[in-house]
## 1
Amino acid sequence: MTFELRELYQQTILDHNRAPRNFRVVEGANRVAEGYNPLCGDKLKVSLRVDDADVIEDVGFVGSGCAISKAAASLMTEAVKGKTTKQAEDIFEDFHRMVTDAGYEPDRKKLGKLLAFSGVKQFPARVKCASLPWHTLKAAIESANVPVSTE
Ligand code: ZN
């Protein structure tokens, strides 16, 4: 990886840690899950609103954690918003391979800004931080349809 690229990736992570996107509970959310990474203490709650066609209309997260987990959650919300749940799981699969499998060449087009985490695989302790938001998203997608309050 070139110095410039590494620098750009670092900037992306710092920026999303400083100003996380979609840092909120989604209004009218119908899928929710909580995730916890005891190794680092990262604690997240991911909420989604999925429409009848399985498209993620809105997604947000709240919680506290290290810079990597927060930036990963922020970038994740941007990456999956407007996608179908199947597409989101597909992106997660690629992302997960990218941070765990050193020999894997990630799909650059599919991952976009998420490539900022490609260096995480050199820090095994950080892999869980980067993938926690995604595991939580997956759990939320698979969670039973939470009835929207009619109040
Ligand atoms: Zn962490």
Note: Residues 37, 40, 42, 65-66, 68-69, 129 surround zinc ion (CB under 6 Å).
## 2
Amino acid sequence: MSTPLLEVNDLKKHFPVRAGFLGGITGYVYAVDGISFSIAKGETLSLVGESGCGKSTVGKAILRLFDITGGQVTLDGTRIDDMPASTLRPLRRRMQVVFQDPYSSLNPRMRVRDILAEPIRNFGLAKDAADLEKRVGDLMDRVRLPRDAVGRWPHEFSGGQRQRIGIARALAAEPDLIICDEAVSALDVSVKAQIVNLLQDLQKDLGLALLFISHDLAIVEHMTHRVAVMYLGKIVEVAPKRELFAAPKHPYTEALLSAVPVPEPGAQRERVILKGDVPSPINPPKGCRFHTRCPYAFDRCRVDEPALRQTDPGHWSACHLHDRPAAENPLAGAKGAALIAKH
Ligand code: SF4
């Protein structure tokens, strides 16, 4: 088996909570608390979960925007989480990011030409000025913006066009992996679909790997290969897209999926309404972190934390229900997210 492009092993990021500005540490926010996954070359993995579950922290930790608390991050066989900044520089080029907000992520004082030229110059990718100009023009073609728009300022573009510029800037560094952190969340529905289609096309054409971070399962359904579902700093389920959407093996995924519209006319999913709010990541529940909201919780769930384990080939779930006989497991088979006929 070939080496995965990205491997994340037991990643932890705990942020200290301080009493006042200069006060001592009174606790920790367990934003990411021991998660593992890998992404193959040319693969899209979507990391989904409600706001505050830690998914954006995972993206930032991979990009080394801060030091991690524990675990390892490996890019193409090289461990990068403990690498000095000077050694990391050439590897940084291979991982780029597209942020959520297309308004604040572009420097308003730079024309598009300079925004796109900056990473090309920084990483020494152009042979000469003519090559630099050609690369900038090619990037505009790639993201389907007119070449003659390179002389314009960011504020002259719509939100969707700015996100295309953000994608072109990420592509300028010739990366192997792009982390899309809620990259379409701030856009209108029709623009969202256009950007998702663009990302899909770029991935196919350039063989890119994507880590697509989103709170919206409906968006990822159309563009991902696999899905990892996060809840309160932990991954609770990982599976190929088709398997996860047809038969989720974790009650939290089942609840998230139940809110996703079904494209077939006359069909709908049985809606699962979760009780209560997401608990605080400062003091996560003992046992299974989802037990305070899970409709199937039983005694063991309150004391024993379930490990993520394989329930079917390539399908992993962290839930004690899978130790029970099939007749007592509401998620056995496809029942959990079964489509039901509309009456
Ligand atoms: Fe629900 Fe228990 Fe499974 Fe956690 S382990 S998801 S509480 S059934």
Note: Residues 250-251, 288, 290-291, 294, 296-297, 301, 306, 319-321 surround iron/sulfur cluster (CB under 6 Å).
